[in-house]
Design goal:
With 95 residues, this protein is α+β, with helices and mostly antiparallel strands. 49% of the residues lie in helices and 23% in strands. The chain has a 4-stranded antiparallel β-sheet, with helices on one face.
């Protein structure tokens, strides 16, 4: 799961010049998230994407547009869907 908090000044300018929707659409295309949320957080704009990151080497390509274009602060946390949780708990019981 990726959560990004966008810098207000930078994202205001990106909204005015059309870059904000371009970056968000690009993120949606690149990540193909199972869920995406947009709204206020900590007094500013934020977005959250729940997606399947198969390879951690894709992290720079995912994060850099948010850093460079929107001045974002990013948190990436591993999360599981119910199927992953069941698989993990079954493996735990076998060990």
């Amino acid at each position: 799961m990726l959560r990004a908090r966008l810098d207000t000044e930078v994202s205001n300018e990106a909204l005015k010049n059309g870059k904000l929707p371009e970056v968000m659409e690009s993120m949606l295309e690149r990540l193909q998230p199972e869920a995406a949320y947009f709204g206020p957080s900590e007094g500013g704009r934020s977005c959250t994407f729940v997606f399947d990151m198969q390879d951690s080497s894709t992290l720079p390509a995912i994060a850099e547009p948010l850093f460079q274009e929107l001045g974002a602060k990013i948190d990436i946390e591993p999360v599981m869907n119910p199927e992953d949780m069941r698989k993990g708990l079954a493996a735990l019981r076998q060990s």
